From TrEMBL:
Pfam families: HTH_18. Keywords: DNA-binding, Transcription, Transcription regulation. Signal peptide: none annotated. It comes from the Bacteria. This is AraC family transcriptional regulator. PANTHER family: RIGHT ORIGIN-BINDING PROTEIN. Residues 28-126 form the HTH araC/xylS-type domain.
Length: 127
């Protein structure tokens, strides 16, 4: 377990504050908070806990602020980031799906195609 945590922290040192913040959570749902943390592979339950809310109140407050569900917002935000990274920064789809926390390339590719109407490999071939 220790070795796994050390490896994760070596890979991404920014996770230290995210993983080891044991302070009392405070009630915040903001675009800034979500944009700073959307790339982390945590569930809605964890986002709710980080903001000091129950899942129901987190979802309700999130909907008021973003006019979308947390799950749909996370998916769309991750896909936008992936699209940007492929198109503007010439990143390979086979690399970027991990960076935006999709569980598999197939899931990423299907979600990307559903949102944009073409596969991530298609846009990468034009870059």
């Amino acid at each position: 377990m220790r070795e796994a945590i050390e490896t994760v922290l070596l890979t991404n040192p920014r996770l230290e504050n995210f993983l080891f913040d044991f302070s009392e959570p405070y009630k915040i749902v903001s675009e800034r908070f979500m944009l700073a943390n959307y790339k982390f592979n945590v569930g809605i339950e964890h986002f709710a806990a980080l903001t000091g809310r129950s899942i129901a109140s987190f979802k309700r407050d999130f909907m008021k602020m973003f006019a979308d569900t947390p799950g749909r917002w996370l998916l769309n935000t991750r896909l936008k980031e992936a699209h940007y990274q492929i198109q503007k920064n010439n990143k390979r789809p086979s690399t970027i799906f991990v960076e935006v926390w999709f569980e598999s390339f197939a899931h990423f590719s299907n979600a990307f195609k559903a949102k944009y109407g073409y596969s991530p490999k298609t846009i990468a071939s034009y870059v």
